[in-house]
Specification:
Layout: H1 2-5, E1 41-44, E2 47-50, H2 51-61, H3 69-107, H4 114-124, H5 143-146, E3 152-156, H6 160-167, E4 171-173, H7 174-179, H8 194-211, E5 223-230, E6 236-242, E7 247-248, E8 256-260, E9 268-273, E10 276-282, E11 296-302, E12 306-310, H9 320-335, E13 340-344, E14 347-351, E15 357-361, E16 367-370, E17 375-379, E18 386-392, E19 395-398, H10 399-415, E20 429-433, H11 439-456, E21 463-468, H12 472-476, H13 478-484, E22 489-493, H14 496-506, H15 523-538, E23 546-549, H16 558-564, H17 567-570, E24 575-578, H18 581-593, H19 596-604, H20 607-612, H21 614-621, H22 636-660, E25 665-668, E26 674-677, H23 679-694, H24 700-717, H25 734-744, H26 755-778
Parallel strand pairs: 3-12, 3-24, 12-17, 17-20, 20-21, 21-22, 22-23, 23-24
Antiparallel strand pairs: 1-2, 2-18, 4-11, 5-6, 6-7, 8-9, 8-15, 9-10, 10-11, 13-14, 15-16, 18-19, 25-26
């Protein structure tokens, strides 16, 4: 029945997969897999809500907040009645602008005349009018975002184990990070190797010498004991015994922040630099401490100051059941009670959120307490996402509006002191908003947050917004976007992966794009990164929020990250994304080496210089990264290599998203290098192939042959993976159809977003799995003997033509 509901490709031609009414410049009816059986929904006014979602909100989310269920649902209904039509109008505006760009590029193919192109963008409204003079004026922003520069983790909130690890990534073992990665060359597999452990200490000593140098010629490798000397008034000093028999002190005594007393030496020494901390843990009886001259058993580095709990690109939530998992994990974080049972060393343990950590102050009487967890932010979905978990009459509603209400309500447990641990100490809730196109959408988001605050009884501007600068229209209008959100803004971040995908889609009709690897070297990219920092500095975001940079996408190549990622801080960023707690620990060392405060202060002192380059940056941003001569100079081998790379990466991600519900994971590329993939990287690959296909750099037969050949590669790479559904030889599963749709319909998909295609085919896969479970249940031996009496499976229908989603 599933096969009949979704058309197979005709032999010898590029597959159409299904009836998909999609036109360039508008969102149209799409085919969504649904069971025809009635899905019960609880009514809340004109609102219809999935029963289980309503039960979650009423029975788990709201108790303890002071918000009655009727108040919550009436408030959500009121917001949706007013703002859902406007959400749709903003999406229509995106399509209207895209249609104008497409028509212009078809009439003016190739690299456009800069003056004529700028005139088009201005006359169409793509370029917004200049904002009146202003400064960012956000208040009550936690120091992890406003004052201290440090790494930022991004983690899917629908995975409880991952998200608890991310919350606890505030502190990480430097020795583990060195020993367990390629930062230290050599074999790291198998049981603990003492010689590798000694080498890891050697690297750690060198890093300590750089961040916390000792007086004279002494180095940390010379230290044999750490002791604390108390002085009059309660202050303390750190004394270090050396192998030579002498003693040494820190070159800068102020770097000694705190300690835990012990006999005969301190059990813990807390050091600080640039607002970040390092703890030296001492225990000569420990199996590692026993091998170190000074008895140091570990070097704990303050690592991820903040972590984004992601409901968007790295998550996989396609229905009410999935959203309840994501919402439930966020609620658990805000209550401080999210925990995960796991096996460690052959024992069952419960991983919980860490508590705060306290030391005796080295400055005098009293103590120093530091958070044991990253400050948690929540990334909601974009305006283009709609959900049927909540319906307004017969229409699906913008998922981001539902996200905002649930995110804020869950955070009320933290704000009201109902949590076991505190997240925000300033009374704020941090919501990252992705994929906004221009200042009108920023203003819409600011108004939505005001409405949510009003319905939940929160003070105005409690909800802060992080703006992802990842769409071309936002990059060109970033100042206006910041003006629209200036009372709530806590970060601007260059999401360069999605930004690359939008760069391709926006100029789809202009001509074929550069090789994928060359896109980052084109003029638009450097101007994009520079302009973002300049806007943050010029508009006084510094001291009130973050200027962020994008993800390190190669989680197994930590040596290269240590070498290269520090450049983002030298460019003025106060945070940059990392893919794992280990990466956060290693990246934290860059913030020791570079004082971001000094870098940004120097930029602020050059305000006139920054202002003078705004026009050249805008020109660079408007330079389209097209292939010279339409790609005619490229060799066939170069074209095929890029096509192979795109197709393999696309399939490698889609099989896990659609087939297994994994939104973000390490996916081996064409050369078997593990890369962190999410929907942003998928957007690039699918749009790049669609662009080359449209402009004749490749043809349909070549693409289909490549995708089939790469399917065999992906199947081999996933051999033995639990729950994996092979693409070959049938080439007919939901994963396969999703991949082909992203390619062959990529030009027509609004803004090149992959979410709707992935979500629809994921729902097909989930329905197929339900059918399989029922069939297995009803095919079991009912008699217990040789005769297998099999009951017929109940009829389960999949509808090929449900009501259209207004904006998918």
């Amino acid at each position: 029945k599933l096969a009949a509901a979704h058309k197979r490709p005709a032999p010898g031609r590029a597959p159409t997969m299904m009836k998909l009414t999609v036109g360039r410049g508008h969102r149209a009816a799409t085919t969504v897999a649904r069971r025809l059986a009635h899905v019960p929904a609880a009514a809340a006014g004109r609102l219809r809500v999935d029963d289980k979602l309503k039960a979650f909100v009423d029975d788990e989310l709201l108790p303890g907040t002071g918000v009655a269920p009727s108040k919550f649902w009436d408030g959500l209904s009121s917001i949706l009645e007013d703002m859902a039509p406007r959400n749709r109008a903003l999406l229509d505006r995106r399509d209207e602008l895209q249609a104008q760009l497409d028509a212009w590029h078809r009439a003016n193919p190739g690299t456009p005349d800069p003056t004529a192109y700028a005139a088009l963008l201005e006359s169409s409204g793509y370029l917004a009018p200049a904002a009146p003079p202003f400064e960012v004026c956000s208040q009550h922003v936690d120091p992890e975002l406003a004052l201290v520069a440090g790494p930022q983790l991004v983690c899917p909130v629908d995975n409880a184990r991952f998200i608890v690890n991310a919350a606890n990534a505030r502190w990480g073992s430097l020795l583990d990070a060195i020993y367990g990665t390629d930062v230290l060359p050599g074999d790291r597999a198998g049981a603990y190797k003492p010689e590798r452990g000694a080498a890891a200490f050697g690297v750690a000593h060198s890093l300590l010498d750089e961040s916390f140098p000792l007086e004279g010629e002494a180095t940390w490798s010379d230290v044999t004991a750490l002791s604390v000397a108390m002085r009059d008034g309660g202050a303390a000093s750190l004394q270090l015994s050396l192998a030579s028999g002498g003693e040494a002190s820190l070159r800068d005594g102020a770097q000694f922040v705190g300690f835990l007393p012990g006999v005969p030496t301190a059990r813990s020494v807390l050091l600080g630099k640039n607002g970040l901390h390092v703890e030296l843990q001492v225990d000569r009886s420990h199996r590692i401490g026993a091998t170190h001259a000074a008895g140091i058993k570990d070097v704990q580095v303050e690592s991820a100051l903040s972590a984004i709990c992601d409901m968007e690109d790295s998550a996989c939530t396609v229905d009410a059941a999935d959203k309840i998992v994501a919402y439930g994990n966020w609620l658990g974080l805000m209550r401080g009670e999210l925990s995960v049972p796991m096996s460690k060393g052959g024992k069952e343990v419960l991983r919980e959120m860490n508590g705060d950590r306290t030391w005796t102050s080295a400055a005098g009487p009293g103590s120093v307490t530091l958070p044991g967890r990253a400050l948690l932010l929540c990334r909601n979905v974009g305006l283009h996402m709609y959900t049927d978990a909540v319906m307004l009459g017969s229409e699906e509603v913008p998922e981001g509006i539902v996200d905002a209400m649930v995110t804020a309500a869950a955070a009320m447990h933290d704000l009201q002191g109902n949590s076991r641990v505190t997240n925000s100490k300033t009374g704020s809730v941090y919501i990252v908003k992705p994929k906004m196109h221009g200042p009108e959408e920023g203003a819409f988001t600011a108004e939505l947050f005001s409405r949510v605050e009003g319905e939940l009884g929160l003070p105005l501007h409690t909800l802060k917004v992080g703006v992802m600068d990842e769409e071309r229209r936002t990059s060109l209008n970033l100042r206006q976007m910041m003006a629209a959100t200036k009372e709530r803004l806590f970060f601007i971040n260059t999401g360069f992966l999605d930004r690359t995908g939008d760069e391709i889609h926006t100029s789809m009709e202009a001509g074929p794009m550069m090789l994928k690897a060359d896109l980052k070297g084109a003029p638009w990219y450097s101007n994009y990164e520079e302009s973002n920092v300049d806007c943050g500095v010029a508009l006084k975001l510094v001291g009130k929020g973050q200027i962020g940079k994008g993800m390190w996408a190669a989680p197994d190549d930590m040596a290269k990250m240590v070498r290269d990622k520090g450049a983002q801080l030298a460019a003025g960023a106060s945070t940059a994304w990392v893919p794992s707690p280990t990466a956060a620990t290693l990246h934290a060392l860059h913030y020791h080496a570079t004082s971001v405060k000094e870098v940004q202060g120097g930029m602020a002192a050059r305000a006139a210089e920054i202002a003078s380059r705004a026009s050249s940056q805008a020109a660079g941003l408007m330079t389209i990264p097209l292939l010279p001569a339409g790609g005619k100079s490229l060799s066939a081998d170069a074209i095929q290599r890029d096509l192979d790379n795109n197709a393999q990466g696309l399939l490698g991600y889609v099989v896990r998203w659609v087939g297994q519900g994994v939104g973000c994971s390490k996916v081996p590329d064409f050369d078997n290098v593990q890369l962190m993939e999410d929907r942003a990287t998928l957007r690039i690959s699918s749009q790049h192939i669609a662009n080359w296909l449209h402009h004749g750099v490749v043809n349909e037969e070549q693409v289909l042959e490549t995708v089939k050949r790469m399917a065999a590669v992906v199947d081999k790479q996933n051999l033995g993976e639990r729950g994996y559904k092979p693409l070959a030889p049938s080439f007919d599963g939901p994963e396969w159809h999703a991949a082909l749709e992203l390619i062959f319909k990529g030009r027509d998909i609004p803004n090149g977003y992959t979410e709707e295609t992935l979500s629809r085919w994921r729902r097909v896969r989930k329905a197929m799995e339900e059918v399989e479970e029922v069939e297995q249940l009803f095919s079991k031996d009912a008699g217990g003997g040789k005769d297998e009496l099999k009951k017929p499976a109940p009829e389960v229908q999949i509808s090929p033509s449900p009501p259209p989603r207004p904006h998918a």
